[in-house]
Amino acid sequence: MEASGSEPEEERKSLGAEIAQQRQMKMMLEISIKELQKTAIEMEKRLGQVEEEERMNVMQGYNQQSKESLKQLLWKKEEERQSLQETLVDYEWRIAQEAKAYHKVINEKREVLNQLGETLDISTRQKKVKPATGPHDLERFKRKGRPSQEVDHEPTDSGGTWLPQLPAGALPRRAHGVTTQQQHRQQTTSEAQQGPTRRRPHGDQLPKLGKFQSPVIL
């Protein structure tokens, strides 16, 4: 029991000693802070005195100088001011140029992005279009792919009437109500569109026999 009772007493003593030590350190810190504050006030006073002394020395130096030297000094300061002003204007101009170049690059970037977007849209639409597989679709695709000069036009007469294309050498039949002149015009138009053709004799046309000739029988 005595051992157990002595332990709290020792802890209390150690804690009391630590508290006393902390209080002593606190007092020392407060004293140091006050001394530092006094030192700072003194330094500020001395700094003010030094600045005042320097100002007075400068004023005395100016007072001791002649008017000509003061004018030269003023002229020199004016040149420095103008040089600084020109440098400032130059920097402002450079900043403006850099801003223009930056905006130009941004606009070009937007145009490139827009063009890429349009290209992607076109490629997507082309992928969605069904390819032509049937014979009619292929023929229509070929007609669309040919130039306008190569498209075959149907023959018509001066009145816009459709004229059928006939093979070379064939005579068109005379339709009801069509005169010989119109029939000849249709034939001429058909031959002009077909181009020059070389007529060949038909195989069923045989040479005629003479009056006293007879076919030879083998």
UniProtKB/TrEMBL annotation:
Low complexity bias: start-end ranges: 179-194
Gene name of the record: CCDC169
Lineage of the organism: Eukaryota, Metazoa, Chordata, Craniata, Vertebrata
Keyword Coiled coil: yes
Coiled-coil blocks: 19-87
Keywords: Coiled coil
Protein name: Coiled-coil domain-containing protein 169 isoform X3
Keyword Coiled coil: yes
InterPro entries associated with the record: DUF4600
Highest taxon in the source lineage: Eukaryota
Pfam families, per database record: DUF4600
Region (Disordered): 120-218
